[in-house]
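ZP: hey, is the nickel (II) ion complex queued? I don't see it on the tracker
AM: it wasn't, my bad. submitting now with these inputs:
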Amino acid sequence: MAIRKILIEPEPLLRKKSESIEKVDDDLRKLMDDMLETMYQAPGIGLAAIQVGILKRIIVIDVSKDVNKKNPLFLVNPKITFRSVKTSTYEEGCLSLPGQFAEIERPAECSLNYIDYKGKYRELKADGLLATCIQHEVDHLDGILFIDYLSKLKKTMIIKKLTKQKKTLERIVV
Ligand code: NI
């Protein structure tokens, strides 16, 4: 397994639509392992392949609170089939938007189908933090970031801050 570099907004790749997977094979499992390790190390509770620069419809998630009881979820070609009318609000962050958080309202429950780590078709009903996390990650596959739900003013402010941060980081690296 290897840690991959996480793309930071502003980054045009983060705005692209990811492509469906034809087949889950060992190469793809290796990518999923890398994504999981990268997510744990960050640390974060969800990561989409595009965040490590790969335009494929793959997500890794682990919302378990206990670090000793890991419970990873691998979602290939996830498709949300139901969104509840009832909503919930969480303060969301994103590994591609470091240090930025905002309250986002989303459907409180969702159902989806996906292909798992072994290539099996599965269905899942989610609520609470998992439902929010799944919707946030599926958004990534369609080039959507949580800041897109904010007012134009707030969004512009966040992107400005990130642009400044990025320049500073690059200066340190050089
Ligand atoms: Ni994110």
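AM: back. The helical segments are 26-41, 128-141, 152-173.
ZP: great, adding it to the tracker
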